[in-house]
Q: What sequence folds into this?
């Protein structure tokens, strides 16, 4: 008995020592169109800091060097040690079929204990693929990091908040950007920028045909300070645009929509907020003709101040609203816009 304990104990102690001291995080940082660091990646780094591990950032695509320099010279992230860039234009499209083999290789060849991505469309499509190839269950939409293995995430469209402990040796996390304040401005002179080589080829027969981008002068929906959202009550595309645009203009707000608005052709689906759309948490959220279905609330209920305009006094949106205006939106919205303009 004593003999077996003597042989087993050093192994246990060694394993615990290894786990405590060799923890490190690989963070996938996304570039914006102009080569700056995407806002969701700044929140991702804020979350990664909470893991208290040394962080390696990985940046891909032809703008990778520019993004890495911008990160190094304009922001402060406590545990960031180095940035590895893979400057290959074929990664510009962020096809998950191209990115996944690269991340799997990095995770297999290095002792990273955590791999973190933001809950952007790229992050959401890459993480399950990486999880499947490494045989690890990812933890998605993390909103709180309690310690390096305990995470909080919403389930059932945000109706239940679950705290889970992840036993996997390599933990794969997607971070809900709106739940973490982006890292502060500053500079990180000691951070090394390394060029990565040997990008593994995609083993799937997928080719990029073309990019169709929705052009908008408005702030990006998920990071906007103010959001004006239109529901089904706006009836058609013309009314949606004519009634909500002036209000969004005076508030320098992004425009959002419910799924009913999108399904009825009132606006583009990139505007959809909710369980199957985008998650936002702006300072001000104005819901116009929105009933407040649970699936919609899942995407906006963390907004700081919620204003609801609805003619039904029993509409569920009033349960989460800080200010409720009960009445006809066709009268209230132009009046409100005019008053804000003054
Ligand atoms: C699996 C699943 C996922 C879903 N995901 C999403 C999602 O991501 N996002 C999402 O939004 N929905 C989602 N939905 C749909 C959701 O259940 C609702 O159907 C949808 O949110 C309703 O949109 P709405 O509020 O625009 O329309 P409605 O529910 O029809 O509400 C319209 C509101 O406008 C008010 N109104 C009408 N006329 C006026 C007027 N003249 N003045 C003032 N108020 C007026 C009405 O009182 C009503 O409250 C999902 C559903 C399912 C099943």
A:
């Amino acid at each position: 008995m004593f003999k077996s304990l003597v042989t087993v104990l050093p192994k246990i102690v060694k394993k615990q020592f290894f786990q405590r001291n060799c923890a490190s995080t690989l963070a996938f940082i996304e570039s914006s169109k102009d080569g700056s660091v995407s806002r969701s990646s700044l929140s991702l780094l804020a979350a990664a800091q909470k893991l208290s591990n040394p962080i390696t950032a990985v940046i891909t695509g032809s703008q990778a060097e520019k993004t890495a320099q911008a990160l190094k010279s304009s922001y402060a992230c406590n545990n960031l040690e180095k940035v590895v860039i893979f400057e290959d234009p074929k990664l510009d499209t962020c096809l998950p079929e191209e990115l996944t083999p690269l991340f799997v290789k990095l995770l297999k060849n290095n002792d990273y204990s955590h791999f973190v991505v933001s809950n952007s469309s790229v992050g959401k499509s890459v993480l399950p693929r990486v999880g499947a190839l490494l045989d690890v269950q990812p933890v998605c939409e993390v909103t709180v990091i309690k310690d390096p293995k305990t995470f909080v995430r919403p389930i059932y469209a945000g109706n239940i908040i679950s705290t889970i402990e992840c036993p996997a040796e390599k933990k794969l996390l997607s971070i809900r950007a709106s739940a973490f304040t982006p890292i502060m401005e500053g500079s990180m002179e000691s951070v090394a920028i390394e060029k990565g080589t040997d990008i593994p080829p995609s083993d799937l027969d997928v080719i990029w045909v073309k990019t169709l981008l929705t052009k908008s002068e408005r702030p990006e929906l998920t990071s906007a300070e103010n959001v004006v959202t239109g529901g089904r009550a706006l009836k058609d595309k013309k009314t949606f645009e004519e009634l909500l645009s002036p209000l969004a203009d005076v508030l320098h707000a992004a425009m959002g929509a419910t799924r009913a608005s999108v399904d009825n052709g009132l606006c583009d689906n990139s505007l959809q907020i909710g369980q199957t759309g985008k998650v936002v948490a702006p300072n001000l959220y104005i819901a116009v003709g929105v009933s407040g279905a649970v699936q919609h609330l899942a995407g906006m209920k963390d907004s700081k101040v919620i204003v609801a305009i609805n003619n039904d006094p029993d509409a569920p949106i009033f349960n989460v609203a800080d200010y409720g205006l009960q009445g006809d939106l066709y009268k209230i919205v132009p009046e409100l816009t005019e008053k804000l303009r003054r």
Residues 221-341 form a domain with the Rossmann fold fold (CATH 3.40.50.1220). The first helix runs from residue 2 to 21. The first strand starts at residue 25 and ends at 29.
